Amino acid sequence: MSDVQIRPFTADDTAVFARLASDPRVTAFVGDGRPWSEETVAARASDALADDPVDRVGSSRWFIAEEQGRPVGLGTATRRDGCVEIGYWVDPAVWGRGVGGAIVTELVRAAPGRFGIGRLVARVHPTNEASSKALLRRGFSAQNAGDGVVHYALDVTPRFERA
Protein backbone atom coordinates (compact mmCIF):
# COMPACT_ATOMS: atom_id res chain seq x y z
CA MET A 1 0.00 0.00 0.00
CA SER A 2 1.21 3.43 -0.87
CA ASP A 3 1.95 6.05 1.81
CA VAL A 4 -0.14 8.85 0.31
CA GLN A 5 -1.39 11.96 2.04
CA ILE A 6 -3.63 14.68 0.68
CA ARG A 7 -3.40 18.42 1.20
CA PRO A 8 -5.51 21.29 -0.11
CA PHE A 9 -4.97 22.29 -3.74
CA THR A 10 -3.26 25.69 -4.18
CA ALA A 11 -2.53 27.93 -7.14
CA ASP A 12 1.00 26.47 -7.16
CA ASP A 13 -0.52 23.07 -8.00
CA THR A 14 -2.04 24.21 -11.29
CA ALA A 15 0.94 22.85 -13.25
CA VAL A 16 0.46 19.40 -11.69
CA PHE A 17 -3.23 19.51 -12.58
CA ALA A 18 -2.44 20.69 -16.13
CA ARG A 19 0.01 17.80 -16.60
CA LEU A 20 -2.58 15.24 -15.48
CA ALA A 21 -5.40 16.85 -17.49
CA SER A 22 -3.35 16.83 -20.69
CA ASP A 23 -2.36 13.15 -20.39
CA PRO A 24 -4.69 10.95 -22.47
CA ARG A 25 -4.08 7.98 -20.14
CA VAL A 26 -5.47 9.99 -17.21
CA THR A 27 -8.41 11.54 -19.05
CA ALA A 28 -9.45 8.31 -20.81
CA PHE A 29 -12.23 7.78 -18.25
CA VAL A 30 -13.11 11.44 -17.64
CA GLY A 31 -15.83 13.32 -19.50
CA ASP A 32 -15.49 12.69 -23.24
CA GLY A 33 -12.24 10.76 -22.72
CA ARG A 34 -9.99 13.36 -24.34
CA PRO A 35 -7.24 15.52 -22.82
CA TRP A 36 -8.38 18.91 -21.64
CA SER A 37 -7.55 22.19 -23.37
CA GLU A 38 -5.48 24.87 -21.67
CA GLU A 39 -8.66 26.97 -21.38
CA THR A 40 -10.56 24.17 -19.65
CA VAL A 41 -7.64 23.53 -17.28
CA ALA A 42 -7.44 27.22 -16.39
CA ALA A 43 -11.21 27.48 -15.82
CA ARG A 44 -11.36 24.34 -13.67
CA ALA A 45 -8.33 25.37 -11.61
CA SER A 46 -9.91 28.78 -11.04
CA ASP A 47 -13.14 27.11 -9.90
CA ALA A 48 -11.17 24.84 -7.56
CA LEU A 49 -9.49 27.83 -5.94
CA ALA A 50 -12.77 29.77 -5.47
CA ASP A 51 -13.31 28.47 -1.91
CA ASP A 52 -17.11 28.58 -2.21
CA PRO A 53 -19.12 27.93 0.98
CA VAL A 54 -19.27 24.17 1.65
CA ASP A 55 -23.03 24.29 2.27
CA ARG A 56 -23.69 25.31 -1.37
CA VAL A 57 -24.50 22.52 -3.85
CA GLY A 58 -21.68 22.45 -6.39
CA SER A 59 -19.08 23.70 -3.95
CA SER A 60 -15.89 21.69 -4.21
CA ARG A 61 -12.57 21.17 -2.53
CA TRP A 62 -9.58 19.82 -4.39
CA PHE A 63 -6.59 18.06 -2.91
CA ILE A 64 -3.13 17.17 -4.15
CA ALA A 65 -2.07 13.65 -3.27
CA GLU A 66 1.58 13.37 -2.31
CA GLU A 67 3.88 10.47 -1.65
CA GLN A 68 7.10 11.43 0.12
CA GLY A 69 6.43 15.09 -0.75
CA ARG A 70 6.01 14.39 -4.48
CA PRO A 71 2.66 14.96 -6.22
CA VAL A 72 1.19 11.64 -7.42
CA GLY A 73 -2.43 12.56 -8.02
CA LEU A 74 -5.44 14.75 -7.43
CA GLY A 75 -8.56 14.22 -5.35
CA THR A 76 -11.81 16.15 -5.43
CA ALA A 77 -14.86 16.41 -3.20
CA THR A 78 -17.98 18.19 -4.47
CA ARG A 79 -21.20 18.83 -2.58
CA ARG A 80 -24.27 17.40 -4.27
CA ASP A 81 -27.86 17.14 -3.02
CA GLY A 82 -27.58 15.01 0.13
CA CYS A 83 -24.10 13.66 -0.60
CA VAL A 84 -20.51 14.46 -1.45
CA GLU A 85 -19.15 13.20 -4.76
CA ILE A 86 -15.50 12.23 -4.73
CA GLY A 87 -13.17 11.86 -7.67
CA TYR A 88 -9.48 11.17 -8.15
CA TRP A 89 -6.79 11.15 -10.82
CA VAL A 90 -3.54 9.23 -10.50
CA ASP A 91 -0.25 10.00 -12.22
CA PRO A 92 0.44 7.11 -14.65
CA ALA A 93 4.03 6.92 -13.32
CA VAL A 94 2.63 5.39 -10.11
CA TRP A 95 -0.21 3.25 -11.50
CA GLY A 96 -0.46 -0.22 -9.99
CA ARG A 97 0.95 0.82 -6.60
CA GLY A 98 -2.29 1.49 -4.71
CA VAL A 99 -2.18 5.28 -5.02
CA GLY A 100 -5.79 5.56 -6.25
CA GLY A 101 -7.03 3.52 -3.32
CA ALA A 102 -4.95 5.58 -0.92
CA ILE A 103 -6.50 8.76 -2.33
CA VAL A 104 -9.97 7.26 -1.84
CA THR A 105 -9.08 6.42 1.79
CA GLU A 106 -7.90 9.97 2.40
CA LEU A 107 -11.02 11.46 0.78
CA VAL A 108 -13.26 9.22 2.91
CA ARG A 109 -11.45 10.59 5.98
CA ALA A 110 -11.54 14.25 4.91
CA ALA A 111 -14.77 14.88 3.00
CA PRO A 112 -17.50 14.07 5.56
CA GLY A 113 -16.17 16.43 8.21
CA ARG A 114 -15.38 19.15 5.72
CA PHE A 115 -18.89 19.14 4.23
CA GLY A 116 -20.88 17.85 7.21
CA ILE A 117 -22.33 15.03 5.10
CA GLY A 118 -21.60 11.34 5.62
CA ARG A 119 -22.92 9.96 2.33
CA LEU A 120 -20.17 9.73 -0.30
CA VAL A 121 -20.64 8.84 -3.95
CA ALA A 122 -18.33 8.25 -6.90
CA ARG A 123 -19.03 7.75 -10.60
CA VAL A 124 -16.80 5.38 -12.54
CA HIS A 125 -16.61 4.43 -16.21
CA PRO A 126 -17.72 0.78 -16.47
CA THR A 127 -14.39 -0.37 -17.95
CA ASN A 128 -12.25 1.29 -15.27
CA GLU A 129 -11.69 -1.84 -13.20
CA ALA A 130 -8.90 -0.39 -11.06
CA SER A 131 -11.10 2.46 -9.86
CA SER A 132 -14.04 0.15 -9.20
CA LYS A 133 -11.83 -2.16 -7.13
CA ALA A 134 -10.40 0.77 -5.16
CA LEU A 135 -13.90 1.86 -4.16
CA LEU A 136 -15.23 -1.62 -3.41
CA ARG A 137 -12.21 -2.42 -1.20
CA ARG A 138 -13.03 0.66 0.87
CA GLY A 139 -16.64 -0.27 1.49
CA PHE A 140 -18.41 1.46 -1.39
CA SER A 141 -21.19 -0.47 -3.09
CA ALA A 142 -22.28 -0.29 -6.71
CA GLN A 143 -25.68 1.39 -6.93
CA ASN A 144 -26.55 1.44 -10.63
CA ALA A 145 -25.10 1.98 -14.08
CA GLY A 146 -26.91 5.14 -15.11
CA ASP A 147 -25.77 7.85 -17.47
CA GLY A 148 -22.96 5.69 -18.88
CA VAL A 149 -21.15 5.31 -15.55
CA VAL A 150 -21.44 3.08 -12.51
CA HIS A 151 -22.47 4.89 -9.34
CA TYR A 152 -20.87 3.84 -6.06
CA ALA A 153 -21.97 4.94 -2.59
CA LEU A 154 -20.70 4.76 0.97
CA ASP A 155 -22.46 6.05 4.09
CA VAL A 156 -19.99 6.97 6.83
CA THR A 157 -22.44 9.04 8.89
CA PRO A 158 -22.02 6.91 12.04
CA ARG A 159 -18.21 7.21 11.80
CA PHE A 160 -17.90 10.96 11.94
CA GLU A 161 -19.22 13.78 14.05
CA ARG A 162 -19.93 17.12 12.52
CA ALA A 163 -17.68 19.83 13.88
UniProtKB/TrEMBL annotation:
Every copy of the N-acetyltransferase domain together lies at 4-161
Q: Which GO terms describe its molecular function?
A: acyltransferase activity, transferring groups other than amino-acyl groups
Keyword entries, A-Z = Transferase
Q: What is this protein called?
A: GNAT family N-acetyltransferase
In which organism is this protein found?
Answer: Pseudoclavibacter chungangensis
